[in-house]
Amino acid sequence: MEYIKSKVRDVVDFPRKGVVFKDLTTVFKDPRALHTIGWDLSEAYRNKGVTKVVGIESRGFIGGSILAFELGAGFVPVRKPGKLPADTLKASYEKEYGVDEIEIHRDAITEDDIVVLHDDVLATGGTMLAAYNLVKSMNPKKIYINFIIELSALNGRELLPKDVEVKSLITY
C-alpha cells in the first residue's frame, strides 16, 4: 500500500478552502498502482460468491469496474439524477459539501445477489449510506462495502451500518 500511497496527490483547497483533496487520478494513471488496487480490492471477496459490484459516480466506476472484472461479477452504476435511462430508485443525502441525490436502476439488484458497494474515498459517509440504503431496499442476500481510501478523521465509517463488513485499502 505504500506504493499506492506514494501516488496519491494532495490538492489543497479543493473543492473549497481548507479541504485537502485526495486525488486518485495520479494512482489510476500508474499501471502498477492500478493493477495492485484491482488485486487488493478483490482479494477479500474472491470466495464470497459476489454477483454484482455497485460503483458510485464517478470515480467509484473505475475501482468498481476493475473489482467486478476481477471477481467475474456484473457491474451496476449508481449515478446522479437523470443519467440512467430506465426506471430508477432515488435517495437524497448530505455530503461534506452540501446535499445531493443518487439513483440506481430499479431492476439492477435481485434477491439472489451478493453485492459489493464500492467508492474511491470514504469521507463523511453520506454518499455510501445512501447507496447502501438503495441497494438494501432491493433485498440482496448480502452487502459488503469497500473503498480505496478512508479519511478516518471525518468518521464516515460511524455512519455506515455496524452489521456490514467495511474495508478500506488505505486509511489516512
Structure, explained:
By secondary structure, the chain is α/β, with parallel strands linked by helices. The protein is built from 5 helices and 9 strands. It has a 5-stranded parallel sheet with strand order 4-3-7-8-9, sandwiched between helices. A two-stranded antiparallel ribbon has the order 1-2. The protein has a two-stranded antiparallel ribbon with strand order 5-6. The N and C termini lie close together (12 Å).
Fold topology:
Layout: H1 2-7, E1 9-12, E2 20-23, H2 25-28, H3 31-43, E3 52-56, H4 59-71, E4 74-78, E5 88-95, E6 98-105, E7 114-122, H5 126-136, E8 142-150, E9 166-171
Parallel strand pairs: 3-4, 3-7, 7-8, 8-9
Antiparallel strand pairs: 1-2, 5-6
Helix pairs in contact: 3-4
DSSP strand content: 25-35%
Order of helices and strands: HEEHHEHEEEEHEE
How far apart the termini lie comes to 12 Å
Total beta-strand segments: 9
Low-confidence stretches: none
| Tally of DSSP helical segments | 5
| SS class | alpha/beta
**Share in helix:** 25-40%
**Average pLDDT figure:** 96
- Indicate the overall shape: globular
* Radius of gyration over all CA atoms, rounded: 15 Å
Walk across the major sheet and give the strand order: 4-3-7-8-9
**What about the largest sheet?**
5 strands, parallel
